[in-house]
Structure formats: C-alpha cells, structure tokens
Amino acid sequence: MSRASSAAPERAAAPGGQLERKFQRLGLHEPADFVVHLPIRYEDETHISAIAAALPGRAVQVEGEVLHSEVLLRPRRQLVATISDGTGRLWLRWLHFYPNQRRQVETGNRIRVRGEVRQGFNGPEIVHPRVSKAVEALPDALTPVYPTTEGLSQAVLRKRIQQALSETDLSESLPESLCRRLALLPFAEAIRVLHGPPAGMSVHELIEREHPAWRRIKFDELLAQQLSLALARARRRAQRARPLAAQDAELLDRLRASLPFALTAAQERVIREIASDLARSFPMHRLLQGDVGSGKTVVAAFAAAQAVASGHQVAIMAPTEILAEQHFNKLAGWLEPLGLTVVWLTGSLTPRLRRQALEAIASGEADLVIGTQALIQDKVHFPRLGLVILDEQHRFGVAQRLELNRKGDRQEDEGGPCVPHQLNMSATPIPRTLAMTFFADLDVSMIDELPPGRSPVITKLVSEARREEVLSLVHREVQSGRQAYWVCPLVQESEALQLQTAVDTHAWLRDAFPDMVVGLVHGRMSPSEKQQVMEGFRQGSVHLLVATTVIEVGVDVPNACLMIIEHAERFGLAQLHQLRGRVGRGTGQSVCVLLYQGPLSAVARERLRAMYETTDGFEIARRDLEQRGPGEFLGMRQSGQELLRYADLQSDTAIVEEAREAAAWLMHHHPDHVRLHLNRWMRGRQDLLRS
Ligand code: ADP
Ligand code: MG
C-alpha cells in the first residue's frame, strides 16, 4: 500500500518525553499499538503457596512473618532475612539492596514475596525476591510480562496498556461467518485474555502460544500479511505493461538451435512460464529460482530474446562487475550472432566508451544492456524498456530494485504510463512457506533439475592444522589439468585487513607452487585487472585463483573442480553454498574443502555440518532459515521491523494456510473488512512487504 493511500493516521509529532521515546522504540505510538503489544510470558500471582511447598527450582509466591533480618559483611556485604508462615521457613537474600528494602524486612513485618526458590546453605532460599506488603489484595488474573526496553518497567508498560485497552475500539474486524467457520475467538476476547488471563488458565498453553486466544492473534497477523500482499498484487495487475508477445518467434527457434546443449525439461518449462507472463498487458513480477549451476542465464537469454523480438529493450543487472561481464560474454555470444545489439555498461567504463554506450541505449540501437548498478543512474535513458532482469536479486537492496523498475515509468503509450516486466533470478531458494507468506506478489518459477552429467560436489571439513595436506590436493588437481579456487577468509571488521590477507595468501601460494600460475582477484583491483585475471582463469592459463568473496556469485568456469575456503567458519550458510557452487560445473568430480579453525561455536558447527551433509540448495536454505529466522534470512532485519511478531512460520503452517484462503475470500467478498483488518494490523508497515 503506498504511503498516500495507506489508512495510517498521521503520527503525532513525538511529544518529546523520555517515556514516549521508550515506547516508540518498541513501536508503540498509538493506543492501537499498545493493544497488540502482547506478553511474552505470565507470572502467577493469583494465589499464595505454603512455604513448605516452596521447593527448589519452583517460582513461588508466599507470605510470612519476618523472623529475623540482618546485614552480613562476610563473605560479602548482603542483606539476609528469614520468614515463616507456620508451615516452614524461607531464607531471603539480597546482594545489592536499598535502605527501603531493608525496612521492608524488619522483624515482625508480614510480607509477601515472589521469586524462584533454590537450595541455599541454610535451606530453601530466594535471591533477590520481589517483596510487597501482605495486606494487598491478590490479583485475580495472571500477571503479564511484556517485551520491553531498557529503563521501561513492567508496571509502567502495564498501566499504559490497560489504559489503551479501555480507550480503543476492539470490535471485530472480520465477518462473523468467517470467525464461525474457523472457530476463531472474537478479537476483543482474545486480546483481553492475553493481557490478563483469568486465574486458573493454563500458563503452559499461554506461554507456548497454543491457547485459542493466541491462535486468533496469529491468524489475524498472518491474515493481515496475506491481505497486504494480495493488495500489492491487485495494484500490480492494475498497472500497464507492454505485452511482449514475440512478433518474430523465429528468433527464439534460432536461439534454441544455436545452443551447444539441449535445454533441460525444467528450463523449457520456466521459459514457457515467463513467455506467457511477458505476453500480458500487466507487468510480470516473477522470481526464477534454481540452485547454483542449474542454468538460469540461458533462461534469461530466452526472455530477453522474446522482448527484443517484440521490439523492446532489455536491461540485465548483476551485483558485481565480474558477474556482469561474464553475462555479457555469455549473452553476447548467444545473441549477437542472431543480430541483436548487446551493450555493456558499468561504472568503470572510460568516459568515451560510456558515452557511446549511453548513446546506443538512448537511441534505441542497444537491444540488450548488461551491467551493474550503473544501469540505474539518472543519465541512463531507455526509450523502449520492456523487460528488466535482476540476477542474484537478493543481493540488491529494495531501493535499487524499485529504481530500475522506475526506469520504465516515464514511458507512455496511448494508454498511459507503462512499467517494464521484471524477472528476478536467485540461487537462494526460498522455502515454500516463506515464499507463500512474504512473496505472494511474486510468481515463482523453479528450475528443479541440474543439467545432465553433473556429479555432486564432495565436501571435506579440514582443520587448519592440516593445511599442508590441502596443498598436496591442490597440486594433484592442477597436475591432472584442472583448476582450483582458493577463497580467502572474510574479515568482517576491516576491508583493508581482508585485502591484506588475500595478498599474503597469494604470495604464500606462489612460493608453495613455483611451477604454477597463481592468480589473484579482489574487490579493490581495477576492473581491467580483474577482467584480465578472470579471462586467464577462464582460458586455463591461470591454474589457481586466489580470491576474496568477489567470486561468490555466478562465476562459471567448468574446468575448475577444486574449491578451498579458508576460515569457513566465518561464512554464512548461503554464502558457503554459493561459493561451493563455483565448482561441480563440469563433468569431472569436484571437491570443496572447508578449512576451519577451532574452537567452533555451536552455530558455526551446525553450519559446517549442514555443508558436509548436503549439497541440496533447498535443504541448505531450510537449515539457514531455521538457524537465522525469517527476518535475517530475507535480509530484512536492517529495516528494524519484525516481519511477524506472533506467528511462527515453522510451527504455524496450518494457520498460514487458513489465512491464505481467508485472504482470498475476503478480498473477493468483503473489501470493507479487508480495510478494517489492515488498519488494525498493518498501520504504516505495508511498504515492507512490497518487493
Ligand atoms: P546459474 O543457474 O548458477 O546462474 P548458469 O546459468 O551459470 O547457472 O549455468 C551453469 C553452466 O551450465 C553454464 O556453463 C551453462 O552454460 C551450462 N548450462 C546451462 N544449461 C545447460 C544445459 N541444459 N545443459 C548443459 N549445460 C547447461
Ligand atoms: Mg547465475
């Protein structure tokens, strides 16, 4: 939903106060926000236990009379007290305390204390108990504990939430028939229960979020997400794009005939899916997924050829120069013989070449333009842009993706402004539930088969201590006419240090292998230097390529069959999978060595284990998602917005399905409820879900 049409009321200018700022840090701006700020857990303060029942390991609330209290000085300064209720005795202990806490436990006082019991030196004790006077009435609901931020107490938060509950309209946002069909608790009831569950309600169900009240909240949240995605889709369908039904289907036949290989069935299928999208008069928004090496580039070539055959220009954007250049070589090799003009545009062109490229684009002479982010600069003007292709789309920020799309906005035809079709390609497979929930406005095509003749890469985990053995492996490989990559460690803290490591490794390997040509490629080299090294590696004159992660994506040299990754424990799972995907592209047996340095953290160990156990990109993605959670997995964490606060995609799949169906039904039958529901749940957040 665009900002303009979003029903979010204007946010009041921050009323300065420190307290307000703390609320805002939690995303709490208006009463409605407080209403859906739900507890993470509960404390049961509704009844008093007998001290005799206060066993170690239990959280209890007891009352008793203070028998004695004193400040000890040894072994360290502390306040201790004992209380009794006639059934038993309990020790209380404070390692830090204020004078008023001392007064609370004067001998003879009747007090109520809460906390977790543990076995102390003298018997059961509670360290740092919470204390109140025994006369206060017991609450009749479980006490909620809310997610909070530093310096904001539960008491203040609770009070504000109670106030919000009394002044907010909690009426139903969903049609009654839907609530009945899905046996959903009414919203108001669910909210009241969760903010103050009546005594006796199962704390376990509440905490595990299995209670029907939680189910209602999760359903609402997922429904809101599905609805906003459905709206995004409806908006896209209302946009216009030029239908790119190839006038000259013969071009596609010639392309197919000129390829040195037969397309796989999966490639043929996705080419058809894309072709029919392109022929429509609203913009395609398709994600092409396929594991590394599955052959996405040639699919892009077919899409491009179709757009050009129908008289339009195509822009292909890649995240790195190396990759853009490789695409240029490949696509120009396939398409130029068929009469297409392919142009290359990156930030590193000389001014003269750059001017030439810009002219070719602006005059419409360039059919296909391949480049890096340079493509989205203002000066680049495409008169007939029909299709935009983003390779490794997850590497681009949301803003960049939107920008490239906007390149088409200025184009008018008789019917008004047109938007280019968009094809995103990615080797990071998004598991089904995630794709369904976050990318409902993205049609997904999947290449689920590798070209024939590939054998899976063998992965070896080798400790740093056995580095020498790896050298002999490299030696053998190169002796037998094949090539190898040596990937230098990631140095998060400093790019300079990372560069230094690469330079050092290069020097070291040159010494180790005097009879080999050892190349070096890193991000700080000039593009022409990079190009030279890569070309040497591609042609086989460079035997061993030392590289930083600039080679992570897309690089395709089938004769390279060995990949060494140093300090593999520092890389993320997706990154390791991408790197490993650089080998196993030819017909020989490929090996990937993950050199690691212990001791390994538990997470690092899990990552390396996953790499060792599987080469299946989907399985890797599933584990990656499990380890990092959806926000980080999708690279959205920077946005500061959680994607889902209450529902869990892994465990709530049944609710996800229900919400999906309900969203489609509501969009169709109850647009008024759609608005009501989104106002409650998605105020100001819709933008997050757009691309
Ligand atoms: P990715 O999906 O990782 O981008 P590429 O498009 O780089 O994969 O393709 C990997 C390699 O497989 C390239 O050398 C490409 O030419 C080759 N290739 C693509 N499709 C086929 C096929 N159907 N049969 C044989 N080789 C293919
Ligand atoms: Mg690729």
Describe this structure in words.
The chain has 691 residues and is an alpha/beta fold. It folds into four domains: 16-167, OB fold (Dihydrolipoamide Acetyltransferase, E2P) (Beta Barrel); 176-238 and 655-689, no CATH class; 249-447, Rossmann fold; 458-614, P-loop containing nucleotide triphosphate hydrolases (Rossmann fold), CATH 3.40.50.300. The chain is built from 23 helices and 23 strands. A seven-stranded parallel sheet has the order 11-12-10-13-16-9-17, sandwiched between helices. A six-stranded parallel sheet has the order 18-23-22-19-21-20, with helices on both faces. It has a five-stranded mixed beta barrel with strand order 2-3-4-6-5. Strand 5 and strand 6 form a beta hairpin. Helix 8 crosses helix 22 (653-669), helix 8 (212-238) crosses helix 23 (671-681) and helix 11 (296-309) crosses helix 12. The chain binds adenosine-5'-diphosphate (ADP) and magnesium ion. Residues 296-297, 391, 554 line the site of magnesium ion (MG).
Q: Overall 3D geometry? A: globular
- The level of helicity is 25-40%
Q: How are the strands of the largest sheet arranged?
A: 11-12-10-13-16-9-17
Count the DSSP helices.
23
- Residue windows where pLDDT falls under 50 for at least 5 positions: 1-15, 636-641, 686-691
Number of domains: 4
Strand percentage lies at 15-25%
Distance linking N and C termini: 12 Å
Mean pLDDT: 85
CATH topology of the largest domain: Rossmann fold
Bound molecules: adenosine-5'-diphosphate, magnesium ion
